[in-house]
Design goal:
The chain is α+β, with helices and mostly antiparallel strands and 541 residues long. 40% of the residues lie in helices and 10% in strands. The protein has a seven-stranded antiparallel sheet with strand order 5-4-3-2-6-1-7, with no helix packed on it. Helix 1 (11-38) packs antiparallel against helix 2 and helix 5 (99-113) packs across helix 6. The longest helix is centred in the first third of the chain and has 28 residues, at 11-38. 33% of the residues are buried. Residues 1-10 and 66-80 have low confidence and may be disordered.
C-alpha cells in the first residue's frame, strides 16, 4: 500500500506542492474542454494521456484525500491522536511495566488492542513515561493516617485556643492572604501546626516546624483551584480578613448552605474549631477497615449525616424545632433577602408563565398586585423578631406567632400561603422552620460560651460525645489512604494525601453530594517544599 508522503512534510511544503500541481492541472483541464468544444481528436488524446499521468501523481502525493485525513496521518495532530492514557492503560493491562518492555512490544500492543500504530518518537516518549511512573511507585512510601479530631467543646474557647484548627481565620504572619489568579481572596479551610503532628507518622520530607494553611474559592463552581500556604511563624495570632473577602459561597450557591442571613450579615469565615492530630496505629496504611475499627473503638457512636434539632425531638422536650429567638431572626433575615430580590423573583415567575402558562399566572398576579402588602409583612416580622436577644428562649406564644408568620409564605397544614410567590425563588428561601432551627443549632454549637451553654445539657453532652468526627467512618485526616469516592484516590495512588476534609455540617462544608475535598502532593514536590504544586480534588457521592 503506498505511503502517504504528506505525513512527514511541513505544512508550507504541502501548500507549495498543491500550488505547483494546480498550475499544471488547471491548464490541462482547460485544454480538455477546448479539445471537446473544437472536436480536436489529437488534442483530446494528448490531454487524456496527461490526465492519466496527473491522477496517480496526485494520489501518491496524497492530494486527493481530505485535509482532515492529513491531520489523522500526521503524528503531531493532537486533535486526532489517541490520548497517551489509552496506550498506558493498555500497557498496564498487558503487564508491560518497563520502558524497555514497551519499546519491544509496542507494535504488538497496538495491533492486539486495535490502536493506531505509534511513531518511533512516541514509543520512546511513552517508554520514558512508564519508567518515570515505575520509579515513582518504587520510591513512594505511604505514611500512616493522622486523624484530625475536634477538641472537646465544653472546656475550650473555640475562637482562640488550639495551634491547629478547622475554619476560622488563618494565622499567616507576614505571608500575604492567598488570592485567585484574577485577584479575589480565597476562603480559609484549616490550619495545621506541623510541630503538633506525631513526628514518627509524617513523611520524612515533611517540615517539622511551621504550619500549613489551606484555602479554596467558595464563590467558584467547582471550588477550585485551591491553595496551600506554608507559614514559617504562625504564632502571630489570627490575620485580619481582607476588606474584599466576600461572604462564604457568594454567588449562585449563596443562601443554600448557610441559612438565615442577609448578605450584610453573612459570615466570611467558616466556624472555627480546634483540632487534635491523632496517629492511627494501623500496621498497614492501606488498610482502611482497620483504621475504621480503631477509630470506632476510640470514638464510638459517632453521628451520621448533618446535625439537626429533629434528632432531639424525643430526648429533649421542646427542642425539636424553633427554640431560640435566633431562629425567628433568621426567618426575618430570609424575608429581607426575598424583598431585595423582588425583581429577580418577578423575572423567574414571568419565565414560568411563558413556559408553563396559566399554572403560574396567579403567582405573577400576586407579585404585581401585593408587593406593598408583602413589604409591610416583612417590616412587621422584622420588628417583632429583631427586638429580642438572639439567645433568649422562645415561649409557647412566641412559637405559635412564628409558625403563623411562616405560614404566610410557606403552606403549613394544608393552608394557603398568601405571600408564597414572593418567597418561592428567593436565594435565602427556608423550606421549613427546621432549616432555620438547624442553622441556629450550628451557630450555638460553634459559637461563644453564652450561645453554647444556652443549649440544653443533653444536647451539649451529645455534641461532646458524638460529633468529634464528621461522621461514623468518615474523618478529616492527613496522609494515609483517604476516602475513595470516585477516582481521585486511584489517580493519586503514589502521591501524599496532605489533607482530607469531609462534608461536615458543623463547618457548613458540603463537597458535591456529601463528598470530600482532598489535597495531594508528590514526593518530589514535598521534598522541595513546592506547595504551589499541590493539587486539590473535590468529589461527591
Amino acid at each position: 500500500m503506498p505511503r502517504d508522503c504528506r505525513s512527514d512534510r511541513h505544512p508550507m511544503q504541502r501548500i507549495l506542492i498543491k500550488l505547483f500541481f494546480a498550475a499544471v492541472a488547471v491548464p490541462t483541464i482547460a485544454a480538455a474542454f477546448y479539445a471537446k468544444a473544437t472536436d480536436d481528436a489529437q488534442m483530446q488524446t494528448t490531454v487524456a494521456f496527461g490526465l492519466l499521468l496527473l491522477l496517480p501523481i496526485a494520489a501518491f502525493l496524497g492530494l486527493l484525500r481530505p485535509e482532515s485525513d492529513t491531520a489523522d496521518a500526521d503524528g503531531d495532530a493532537s486533535s486526532q491522536a489517541t490520548p497517551d492514557e489509552v496506550y498506558l492503560s493498555h500497557a498496564e493491562a498487558s503487564n508491560i511495566l518497563t520502558g524497555a518492555q514497551f519499546k519491544a512490544e509496542a507494535a504488538r500492543l497496538c495491533k492486539d488492542s486495535g490502536l493506531k500504530p505509534l511513531k518511533r518518537k512516541d514509543i520512546k516518549r511513552l517508554a520514558n513515561v512508564i519508567d518515570e511512573i515505575q520509579a515513582k511507585v518504587k520510591a513512594f512510601h505511604r505514611s500512616a493516617e493522622i486523624t484530625l479530631v475536634r477538641s472537646a467543646r465544653s472546656t475550650i474557647d473555640l475562637a482562640t485556643e488550639g495551634t491547629s484548627w478547622l475554619g476560622g481565620a488563618p494565622a499567616l504572619g507576614d505571608t500575604p492572604w492567598p488570592r485567585t489568579a484574577d485577584g479575589k481572596p480565597l476562603h480559609h479551610l484549616a490550619q495545621v501546626d506541623l510541630a503538633s503532628l506525631p513526628q514518627d507518622a509524617v513523611p520524612a520530607q515533611m517540615p517539622r516546624t511551621g504550619a500549613l494553611s489551606f484555602f479554596v474559592p467558595t464563590t467558584a463552581d467547582p471550588m477550585l483551584p485551591a491553595k496551600v500556604v506554608y507559614i514559617a511563624d504562625s504564632t502571630t495570632g489570627p490575620s485580619p480578613l481582607p476588606d474584599d473577602l466576600p461572604p462564604l459561597y457568594a454567588g449562585e450557591r449563596w443562601g443554600h448552605h448557610i441559612k438565615g442571613h442577609t448578605r450584610q450579615t453573612a459570615p466570611r469565615v467558616f466556624p472555627r474549631w480546634p483540632i487534635v492530630p491523632l496517629a492511627t496505629p494501623v500496621p498497614d496504611p492501606h488498610d482502611a477497615a482497620m483504621a475504621n475499627a480503631y477509630l470506632t473503638m476510640k470514638f464510638p457512636d459517632q453521628e451520621t449525616g448533618a446535625i439537626s434539632t429533629a434528632k432531639y425531638a424525643k430526648s429533649v422536650p421542646g427542642f425539636g424545632g424553633a427554640f431560640f429567638w435566633d431562629t425567628a431572626q433568621r426567618f426575618a433575615n430570609s424575608l429581607q433577602v426575598a424583598l431585595i430580590a423582588y425583581d429577580q423573583i418577578l423575572t423567574v415567575t414571568q419565565q414560568r408563565v411563558a413556559d408553563y402558562g396559566e399554572r403560574y399566572q396567579n403567582d405573577l398576579d400576586t407579585l404585581i398586585d401585593r408587593k406593598e402588602d408583602f413589604a409591610g409583612i416583612v417590616d412587621e416580622i422584622t420588628g417583632w423578631a429583631l427586638e429580642q436577644d438572639a439567645w433568649d428562649r422562645l415561649q409557647g406564644t412566641d412559637i405559635a406567632q412564628l409558625q403563623h408568620y411562616f405560614g404566610l409564605i410557606r403552606p403549613m397544614q394544608g393552608q394557603v400561603a398568601p405571600f408564597q410567590p414572593f418567597y418561592r425563588y428567593s436565594p435565602g428561601e427556608l423550606h421549613s422552620l427546621g432549616d432555620a432551627a438547624d442553622a441556629t443549632l450550628i451557630a450555638a454549637a460553634t459559637g461563644d460560651f453564652q450561645a453554647y451553654h444556652n443549649l440544653p445539657a443533653a444536647v451539649r453532652d451529645d455534641i461532646e460525645a458524638h460529633w468529634r468526627l464528621p461522621a461514623n467512618n468518615r474523618r478529616h485526616q492527613m496522609f494515609g489512604l483517604g476516602t475513595a469516592v470516585q477516582t481521585a484516590v486511584d489517580e493519586h495512588a503514589h502521591d501524599h494525601l496532605l489533607l482530607q476534609l469531609q462534608s461536615d455540617s458543623l463547618h457548613y462544608w458540603m463537597w458535591g453530594d456529601a463528598g470530600v475535598i482532598q489535597f495531594w502532593i508528590s514526593d518530589a514536590a514535598l521534598a522541595a517544599g513546592d506547595w504551589d504544586s499541590v493539587e486539590a480534588t473535590i468529589e461527591g457521592r
